[in-house]
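Q: I'm writing up a methods section and want to include an example of the input and output format. Could you take the sequence below and give the corresponding predicted C-alpha cells, formatted cleanly so I can copy it straight into the document?
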Amino acid sequence: MSAQSTEELVAKKCVPCEGGVPRYSAAEAQEQLQKLQGWEMSHDGQRIRKKWTVKNFVAGINFFTRVAELAICTCLATAMSRSRSGRTPSAG
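A: Here is the clean output for your methods example:
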C-alpha cells in the first residue's frame, strides 16, 4: 500500500467498521506520516495523532464542534448508504 497525499486522503470517505482493510505495517505508517504535516505516531504505535493550538477556549470549542459535525455527517451518510444497500455494519 503506497502512502497517500493529504489531497487524496481528503477526497476519501470514512467507512468505520467496514472491515477487510489490512492494517498498515509500521513502515507503511511511517511512510504515510511523512506526507501528513503535523501528524505523529502515538506512543503505542497503534494510532496517529495531531496536536492543535488555538487562540482561546472558545476557538477550540468551535473548531472541535465543526470536526464533530463533519464526523456525524460522514457517519450518517455511511449508515444511510448501508441501509439502502441492505448492508449492516460488521461487528468488531
